[in-house]
From TrEMBL:
<dbReference type="GO" id="GO:0008892">
    <property type="term" value="F:guanine deaminase activity"/>
</dbReference>
<dbReference type="InterPro" id="IPR051607">
    <property type="entry name" value="Metallo-dep_hydrolases"/>
</dbReference>
<dbReference type="InterPro" id="IPR014311">
    <property type="entry name" value="Guanine_deaminase"/>
</dbReference>
<feature type="domain" description="Amidohydrolase-related">
    <location>
        <begin position="124"/>
        <end position="494"/>
    </location>
</feature>
<keyword id="KW-0479">Metal-binding</keyword>
<comment type="pathway">
    <text>Purine metabolism; guanine degradation; xanthine from guanine: step 1/1.</text>
</comment>
<keyword id="KW-0378">Hydrolase</keyword>
<comment type="similarity">
    <text>Belongs to the metallo-dependent hydrolases superfamily. ATZ/TRZ family.</text>
</comment>
<keyword id="KW-0862">Zinc</keyword>
<dbReference type="GO" id="GO:0005829">
    <property type="term" value="C:cytosol"/>
</dbReference>
<dbReference type="GO" id="GO:0008270">
    <property type="term" value="F:zinc ion binding"/>
</dbReference>
<dbReference type="InterPro" id="IPR032466">
    <property type="entry name" value="Metal_Hydrolase"/>
</dbReference>
<dbReference type="InterPro" id="IPR006680">
    <property type="entry name" value="Amidohydro-rel"/>
</dbReference>
<dbReference type="GO" id="GO:0006147">
    <property type="term" value="P:guanine catabolic process"/>
</dbReference>
<comment type="function">
    <text>Catalyzes the hydrolytic deamination of guanine, producing xanthine and ammonia.</text>
</comment>
<dbReference type="InterPro" id="IPR011059">
    <property type="entry name" value="Metal-dep_hydrolase_composite"/>
</dbReference>
<dbReference type="Pfam" id="PF01979">
    <property type="entry name" value="Amidohydro_1"/>
</dbReference>
Amino acid sequence: MSIWHLTTRTTEVTTYQMLFHQPATWACQIENVDRTSKKMGDFFHSSISKNTCIDFHNHVAPPIIIQGPIVHSVSKDRITALENKLIAVKDGKIVALEDSECMDEIRRMIGDNFIFFKLEPGMFLCPGFIDGHIHAPQFPNVGLGMDKSLLDWLSTYTIPLEKKYKDVNFSETVYNYVVDTTLKCGTTTACYFSTIFKNNSKLLAEIVRRKGQRALIGKVNMNQNSVLDYFEETDESLKETEEFVKDVFELNSSLVEPVITPRFAISCDKDLLKKLGSLAEKYDLYVQSHISENLEEIKLTMELFPDCANYADVYDKAGLLTNKTILAHGVHLLDDELLLLSRRGTAIVHCPNSNTYLKSGLCDVKRLLDNKIKVALGTDVSGGISLSIMDAMRTTLATSNHLSILGKQVKPLTYHEAFYLATLGGAEALNKEKTIGNFQVGKDFDALVVDMEVKVGSMSCSLATHNLLELVQKFIYLGDDRNIKMVFVQGKPVVNK
């Protein structure tokens, strides 16, 4: 086996290119992942996070073995912390998770051509984060309109911005930034809302594919109750949506999928909703939308659909509630709605940041889980003010504490449960728990290398000795994107720092 010690930027880039173009030719061992001259990510390339022309869709992931602490969830109640393990990845999938003494056995399994990393003290490996609800075009508005409630905020800020996305150059600039930044924040899977414009939505899919993120991408549907003529005729909406679905299929990506996306019940009439339900059934597609976010929204919805028993019934009558449906918010769901969603296998995406800033309410996640409803976390930019699921974890915990203080929860959520919602819980909400969510053998390797000794910000882990779970706690409560040293999606290193 050849051993490479990488010391110069030129060597690193050349080696990266050789590895990816001739993956069976080179073997490499790096004894330690340090924080200075021999960065883990620098081995692969020097500028993935700087809008390079690298197209990850066309690259083959080299076999990888990583040694060090590993954390993941195998249940919602407790993080599994493994102090010193070897995880082996081949063809983008986890092929072994063993004790550190099993290197020879793993090498026999994957062969001699692989890259080996040994994590330093203060580092650990965790699953990639899953963002179940994010509006990619809304990012330029982050931090604006937080003094307004939902419907006023939509008409004043959101719709005028989304109309601008007919401009391809503007779209490309924003979407490149959003995908780069979510990846840097550790989001390996994202459920994106785009706009009502087909070509703009296709552009987002192409950018996501090129940058190597896993994503569901939806062209938004609206045929009523909008401002500034930002809506479509029903036939046009359906035609362009079906064309968009076919466009995404033609990208031939195992990571990027189309999703049927009625904005919410208020913006779509009964006919459009039913036909979107039929389209989802025809192509076996995911569905994403909003539900019961705001009391004013619920009131208007029931006025528009008087023959429906409740908000969830609007979607159910249209054939839009399935086990591949993910609905954002669910703050004010009735008991009957919880029962219906549970029966249909429909998931809720908890968006605590936007629920708070738009004053929509405090969602009781424990109530959802107790009713056997799958729950993911969402940033909900730009109702939410951060692209980071880490921020969503923190706000989830704060919201749960507030409900407990108000006497609406007996016991608040723990950091173990918040971590589960950000990883395996999100995978279960998307029906992808057999593919992603933790490090079980056979799943795709979507992972983050976390460094808790980064010398930036106010956090320090060097003032005291911490065990692995304590490092995870500090990461959840205090960490940010600077602590995420490297991001893998399907075994490919899509971000390095």
